[in-house]
Amino acid sequence: MKERSAASRRQVIKGASALALGGVWLAGRPAEADVAKAQKLLGELIGGKTPQEGKVRLEMPQIAENGQTVPLTAAVDSPMTPNDYCKAIHILAEGNPEAAVCTFKFSPANGRAEFSTRMRLAQTQNVWAVAEMSDGSVWMTKTEVKVTIGGCGG
Questions:
Q1: Residue among 124, 134, 115 at smallest CA distance from 154
Q2: Where exactly are the structural domains of the chain?
């Protein structure tokens, strides 16, 4: 019977390094969003209307220790009646690989236009909350969140 020789430590490290470098090459670097891309996406979402400041409240931490899970609460000051209500709230992150984070749709039956969730942030950036109202108006706010450890693989 022929004995198998154990791989040397050096061979194992070389193999692991080659595998890791190959994985980096295959995965590539995530595409970066930017303000222009976020604005273009926003224009598509709201039909080219110009958002006004006000009515929208966005609560997020000023500093996110870890970008993997950043809490946010968005709300719109709206009576939520059949004639006057918030139709949708869009959340965009201008520095993530994809600017579109989420969209929540509402009807008068919701009673309030408010939600809480968590999101990932790749880096320090502005997060936008944009509300579409039933009368066709669009409202927005934005807040900067400083991220110490990115959460989008960047």
A1: 124
A2: 35-147
Residue 147 token pair = 């991220």
Sequential pLDDT tens for the chain (154 residues): 555 555 666 665 665 555 444 443 334 444 456 888 889 999 999 998 999 999 999 999 999 999 999 999 999 999 999 999 999 999 999 999 999 999 999 999 999 999 999 999 999 999 999 999 999 999 999 999 999 987 676 5
Q: Which residue has the tokens 């934005």?
A: 142
CA contacts within 13 A on the Cβ side of 124: 4
* 100, 35 Cβ separation under 8 angstroms: no
- The span from the CA of 112 to the CA of 97, in Å, is 31
Nearest alpha-carbon partner for 99 in 127, 130, 69, 124: 127
Phi-psi region of 153 (alpha: psi -120 to 50; beta: other; left: phi over 0): left
CATH class name, domain 35-147: mainly beta
